[in-house]
Amino acid sequence: MASANLTIPSQPMSYTELVHVAQQDLSLSLPEQLWWAHYAFWNNDILATGIITFLAHEVIYFGRCLPWIIADSLPNVFRRFKIQDQKPPPTVHDQWTCVKYILLIHFVIELPLIVLFHPMMDMCGLQYTPPFPRLSLLSAQVALFFIVEDTYHYWLHRAMHWGPLYRSIHRIHHQYAAPFGLTAEYASPWETFLLGLGTICPPLVLGYFTGDVHLVTVLVWMALRQLQAIDSHSGYDFPWSLRRLMPFWGGSDWHDDHHRYFWGNYSSSFRYWDILMGTVAGPRGKAMGHNPRG
């Protein structure tokens, strides 16, 4: 990978030395210089993309789960914010079981897909060299990805509650009727793969037709989607939760009802598909005449 004003040195160099080389291009910001040095250090774009994507995924996932693990270990402090407060918090065994299973899924299912992502990026014309995209463009594209993924997630998730698909694919995710942060990606390999398509395909398709999607945008989108999934499974609803600022946002109170009643609230991020299609779960849905499972 080469910047417009930089070329990769022919002799091996340390990462620190490569950062100094990148600093010669005054048009690049510090993050862009570090990004260029990362690709130059590995000198293999597929490997460099795979490393940065997989590490970002692991750090963000388990880093965001950690506060919820702490909250579950301090019920005297946080129980008043727990949605299903009548149920005991997950045990250490529950948490550890999730960690082991999720690591298996991450390495066996997600890692190979991440390694294949760079060739797919090249096929679809996604960019990954500096400079980074404008914040306005990045924000608009991420917002579009949220809307597209939410639609895809709604219909696929709803289909997975059809008897045969539920028993063969989706039942694993519903092992915990009172979800906690780590359960966000506690799912069967097929569910992981199918739902993952809803995350990676929108950037690839948009990049194919516009040629104006950057890997940084994809990483930001993936990180925000992870944070949303973990928070919606956290089992906690705080006065400062995002859903109180954005009434159309799903949030943990919305998705918790899905796990509690095993029906409805199929969307991932928003509420409008469930409202429009009459699949609001729990007492809210019963009050709206959507279902009898209040």
Provide a concise account of the structure shown.
Keywords: Membrane, Transmembrane, Transmembrane helix. By secondary structure, the chain is mostly helical.
Count of strand segments: 0
Look at the helices and sheets and give the structural class. Answer: mainly alpha
Global Rg: 21 Å
Percent strand equals under 5%
Give the overall silhouette: globular
Q: On the 0-100 scale, what is the average pLDDT?
A: 93
Topology pattern, helix = H, strand = E:
HHHHHHHHHHHH
Biggest sheet details: none
Distance between the termini: 56 Å
Q: What proportion of the residues is helical, as a percent range?
A: 55-70%
Total helical segments:
12
- Unreliable runs, pLDDT <50, ≥5 residues? none
How would you sum up this structure, described in words?
Helices cover 62% and strands 0% of the residues. Helix 1 packs across helix 2. By secondary structure, it is mainly α. The longest helix is centred in the middle third of the chain and has 33 residues, at 92-124. It is built from 12 helices and no strands. The chain starts with 14 loop residues before the first helix and ends in a 7-residue tail after the last helix. The protein has helices spanning 15-22, 30-42, 45-73, 75-78, 92-124, 135-160, 163-168, 189-210, 215-232, 251-261, 272-277, 282-287. The chain has one domain (43-286).
